[in-house]
Amino acid sequence: MSDEPDHDPTRELRALALRLSDHDWRVTWEASQSLERAGQAGSDVILWGLSHPDARVRRGCAGYLDHHGTDAFFPRIRSLALHDPAAKVRYEAVHAATCQRCKPAPLTGDLVGLLVQVALEDPNRTVRLQAIAGLRSQPRDARAVAALEHIVRTETDPRLRGQAHHVLKRQDPAYKARFDAEARRRGIAAAGARQR
Predict the structure, then answer these.
(1) What are the residue ranges spanned by the domains of the chain?
(2) Which class would CATH give 110-196?
(3) What is the model's pTM?
(4) What is the CATH code for 1-109?
(5) Phi-psi region for residue 24, left (φ > 0), alpha (ψ -120 to 50) or beta?
(6) Is the pLDDT assigned to residue 5 strictly greater than 60?
């Protein structure tokens, strides 16, 4: 009989997933690298962590998907972004969905649909700002234009309204042309008033 404790790789990988919630970036980086090297077993543990009762663990696992997310994770990322009770987890899930440059391959799920829903419905301003900002990097889409126009017209929070305005100029060239023409008209009128 051996004096060594039983080797349980799942337990070890789960311990790494828990370390993704550490405040020390070196600890999270080391855990992330180990989970990546574990391949499919590491991915399975990330899925486990996305359902963990501790919001910090869910957030850490969602953060891992910023760099390692694939289409296989998209349904879970979407669910977290829309339904997690913790705003910090929703924020991290929205970021993981939209940050394509960090991933091995861009996600192909309906990112615009997800971002529009979060931008219009999330109760947290910071999460909504992240979703609106995420629409900036998406291809032009009528759903995004409609949502951004709605936010510009009806939103009372100046940061949300301002962010929506800037992203709408990118999503809708006609809106940008109208806004630029109006700004030029006001500038010319103001210059004429100063000269008088």
Answers:
(1) 1-109, 110-196
(2) mainly alpha
(3) 0.87
(4) 1.25.10
(5) beta
(6) no
